[in-house]
Amino acid sequence: FEQHMKTRQALNHLPDLLLDGFAKLLDEKCVSQQSVTRENLSSTIRVLLEEAGLWQAQQRIQQEAAQSSSTSIVYHWQSDGRFHRMPQDFAFPQLDALSVWCIWWLGHPAAGYPPFRALQPSDFTKTNRKMFSEWTVLVRHIVAGVE
User: Fold this and answer.
1) Origin, by domain of life (predicted)?
2) What is the dihedral angle through the alpha carbons of 113, 84, 7, 93, rounded to the nearest 10 degrees?
3) Count of H-run helices and E-run strands, the chain
4) Distance between CA 65 and CA 117 in Å, rounded?
5) Does 62 lie in the same domain as 50?
6) Whether residues 146 and 76 fall in one domain
7) Any bridge partners for residue 28, and if so which?
8) Per the CB 3.0–4.6 Å rule, which of 46, 78, 97, 103 could disulfide with 10?
């Protein structure tokens, strides 16, 4: 529950972070006597969204999709003799809500982890299933809030 509250607080602060970034842009442009052009504003918004992990260049997304679709990694667990989509020694990292959202939908290609939305509780050890459930509830809560 405490993790959920921290995540909720992080989500509540995200609009403030973006607003501060836009305010900084406008202050810089007004102070330096440059006009705010469409291109200038567009590139600055992209940079802010990239820093927040909410935007990726289309080419990078296509490359990651091509890499992830070409191979599907499965792990054989010695404990139960079955195959799973996550390694047996996987441990959930401490993440903010934005990072959970990104991993939920995009996975972690560098670590070889698929999008978590495609996983099942059986892909995790019993000790990790509770955290997977909490992430599931968090993402559903975010989606419900957006709808």
Assistant:
1) Eukaryota
2) -60
3) 5, 2
4) 15
5) no
6) yes
7) none
8) 97
